[in-house]
């Protein structure tokens, strides 16, 4: 039986085997035959070239049939997955579903308000911090001036205690101004110098740049362009599915 007249459904009914198992067996057999030919020795005659061509055509066609069966077998699963995705997408699709759209709209209201509250808390924390620092300096000055005067020393100790209490208040205010605000920090890189950015990126991952350039050049050459800056366009003949004349 040749590959061209192979009918997996008909054979499956005859031998009570699934089409894919028959195709797998055929491909396995052809693969083993290909291993016998592909032993490192070059083609020595037209007869051998014809035999290898026939073998290649056979395994190529068997592969096409196997892939068609794969698509057919996979289709119900793809359809089922798509149906589930379509059912949930209106609600949970990133950026387009109702959940993300509602969150985005509400965040646009909450963000400026929370930023305003954060700024007010930061200003209050800064004010208390300034007062705490001033109180600390005043207490230190009073301590120095109280030498030899017990009453003034006692008063200076009270000022120092008040200054320390105010420092604790300042620390609490600073914590309140920097945590629990419902805001998160987002860092973004803004491109301001293309040349410097390209030099940096190339030095960081030159292989990625080479891959992008190669991919773009290959696309141009496949489209018919025969001159690409920085590349040498080379013509090469390779084996295809057709027979040699």
Question: What shape does the CA trace take?
Answer: elongated
How many β-strand stretches? 0
Query: Whole-number average pLDDT?
Result: 88
Percent helix, as a range, is over 70%
Name the poorly predicted regions: 1-14
Radius of gyration: 39 Å
What is the N-to-C order of secondary-structure elements (H for helix, E for strand)?
A: HHHHHHH
Query: How many helix segments?
Result: 7
Distance between the first and last residues' Cα? 25 Å
Q: How does the major sheet shape up?
A: none
Describe the structure.
The chain is mainly α and about 240 residues long. Helices cover about 75% and strands about 0% of the residues. The chain has helices at about 10-15, 20-35, 45-90, 100-145, 150-180, 195-205, 205-220. The chain is elongated and about 120 Å long.
Helices and strands, with pairings:
Elements: H1 8-15, H2 19-37, H3 46-92, H4 98-145, H5 150-178, H6 194-204, H7 206-222
Helix pairs in contact: 1-2, 2-3, 4-5, 6-7
């Amino acid at each position: 039986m040749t590959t061209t007249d192979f009918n997996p459904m008909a054979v499956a009914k005859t031998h009570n085997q699934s089409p894919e198992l028959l195709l797998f067996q055929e491909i396995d057999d052809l693969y083993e035959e290909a291993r016998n030919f592909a032993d490192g020795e070059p083609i020595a005659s037209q007869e051998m070239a014809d035999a290898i061509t026939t073998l290649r055509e056979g395994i190529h066609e068997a592969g096409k049939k196997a892939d068609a069966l794969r698509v057919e077998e996979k289709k119900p699963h793809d359809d089922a997955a798509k149906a589930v995705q379509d059912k949930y997408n209106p609600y949970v699709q990133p950026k387009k579903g109702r959940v993300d759209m509602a969150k985005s709209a509400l965040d646009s209201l909450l963000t400026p308000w929370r930023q305003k509250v954060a700024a007010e808390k930061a200003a209050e924390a800064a004010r208390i911090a300034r007062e705490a620092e001033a109180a600390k300096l005043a207490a230190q000055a009073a301590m120095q001036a109280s030498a030899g005067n017990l009453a003034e020393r006692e008063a200076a100790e009270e000022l120092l205690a008040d200054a320390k209490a105010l420092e604790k208040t300042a620390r609490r205010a600073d914590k309140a101004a920097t945590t629990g605000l419902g805001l998160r920090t987002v860092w973004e890189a803004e491109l301001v110098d293309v040349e410097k950015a390209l030099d940096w990126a190339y030095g960081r991952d030159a292989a990625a740049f080479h891959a992008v350039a190669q991919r773009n050049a290959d696309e141009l050459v496949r489209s018919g362009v025969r001159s690409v800056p920085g590349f040498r366009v080379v013509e090469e003949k390779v084996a295809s599915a057709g027979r040699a004349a």
